[in-house]
Amino acid sequence: MKIILLGPPGAGKGTQAKSISNRYSIPHISTGDIFRMNISQNTPLGIEAKEHMDKGHLVPDEVTINMVKDRLAQEDCMGGYLLDGFPRTVFQAESLQNFLTERNEKLDTSLLIEVPMEFILERMIGRRGCQSCGASYHIKFNPTKVEGKCDVCGSDIVQRKDDVEETVRERLDVYERQTQPLIDFYKERNLLSTVDGTEAINEVFESICTILGSKK
Ligand code: AP5
Ligand code: MG
Ligand code: ZN
């Protein structure tokens, strides 16, 4: 299956992606995670991405698209994949459509996790994440079993640098201007499914499985 996760920052894309990737045995490809990994290793890509991410802005399309195409051409993507955080602009979405067409492939669906803006700030500011394995937690909605330590791998959990209020507001603004148009892009192509992301984490996952079950 080839799936795209859409939704505003803090909608729960990363949280749901981990479960979907396990259930359907497809790789979870998060452009944000790839950028953060490059930042922690201080690669040229990481240095460029950091400049934009710290301000809450998008990394330029050309850099992002080339990175994703390289990733999708890898062997583990042959049986499908789950994209989290890509595409994020209409240009990225068009590039992905062209990439798929060239390879005689198509998307199964894009899945929009719908969460109204008033929920987002609390989710983002309370979010903590594992730097080693990428697991995502929330101090109130999804706390770790041992305070400050990842349930999966035991590493320290930290707050993302772009999860401070001012940057979150900028990211939400960027989402509305640059990413929201993708909802219509996929709707027009009959490739949009929507779930209510305000439910509890496991309930959102059940709704997603119902949708994906009907696509198999
Ligand atoms: P990215 O890492 O993709 O961030 P984002 O889209 O802003 O989304 P988040 O990761 O913040 O939210 P999420 O939806 O994954 O939510 P999560 O599951 O963690 O991108 C970061 C930056 O990288 C961008 O700003 C940009 O600079 C750059 N970038 C990335 N991709 C790019 C691209 N394609 N083009 C250009 N630039 C790009 O959940 C959030 C919190 O809520 C967690 O604490 C979680 O525990 C909690 N939570 C989740 N679900 C629920 C629920 N149902 N109920 C209660 N709490 C919940
Ligand atoms: Mg995420
Ligand atoms: Zn971990």
Automatic annotation (TrEMBL):
NMP: annotated span: 30-59
Residues noted as binding ATP in the record, renumbered to the chain: G10, A11, G12, K13, G14, T15, R127, S136, Y137, E199
Pathway recorded for this protein: Purine metabolism; AMP biosynthesis via salvage pathway; AMP from ADP: step 1/1
GO molecular function: AMP kinase activity; ATP binding; zinc ion binding
Alphabetic keyword roster: ATP-binding, Cytoplasm, Kinase, Metal-binding, Nucleotide biosynthesis, Nucleotide-binding, Transferase, Zinc
Presence of the UniProt keyword ATP-binding in the record: yes
Subcellular location: Cytoplasm
Binding, Zn(2+): C130, C133, C150, C153
Classification via Pfam families: ADK, ADK_lid
Reactions that this protein is recorded to catalyse: AMP + ATP = 2 ADP
A biological process term (GO) from this entry: AMP salvage
UniProt keyword Transferase, yes or no: yes
EC number(s) stated in the UniProt entry for this protein: 2.7.4.3
Adenylate kinase active site lid domain segment(s): 127-162
Residues reported to bind AMP: T31, R36, H57, L58, V59, G85, F86, P87, R88, Q92, R160, R171
InterPro entries attached to this UniProt entry: Adenyl_kin_sub, Adenylat/UMP-CMP_kin, Adenylat_kinase_CS, Adenylate_kinase_lid-dom, P-loop_NTPase
Domain of life the protein comes from: Bacteria
Free-text comment on this protein's domains from its UniProt entry: Consists of three domains, a large central CORE domain and two small peripheral domains, NMPbind and LID, which undergo movements during catalysis. The LID domain closes over the site of phosphoryl transfer upon ATP binding. Assembling and dissambling the active center during each catalytic cycle provides an effective means to prevent ATP hydrolysis. Some bacteria have evolved a zinc-coordinating structure that stabilizes the LID domain.
Family as reported in the entry's similarity comment: Belongs to the adenylate kinase family.
Subunit structure: Monomer.
Function: Catalyzes the reversible transfer of the terminal phosphate group between ATP and AMP. Plays an important role in cellular energy homeostasis and in adenine nucleotide metabolism.
Name recorded for this polypeptide: Adenylate kinase
Species name: Clostridium gasigenes
Lineage summary: Bacteria, Bacillati, Bacillota, Clostridia, Eubacteriales
Gene assigned in the entry: adk
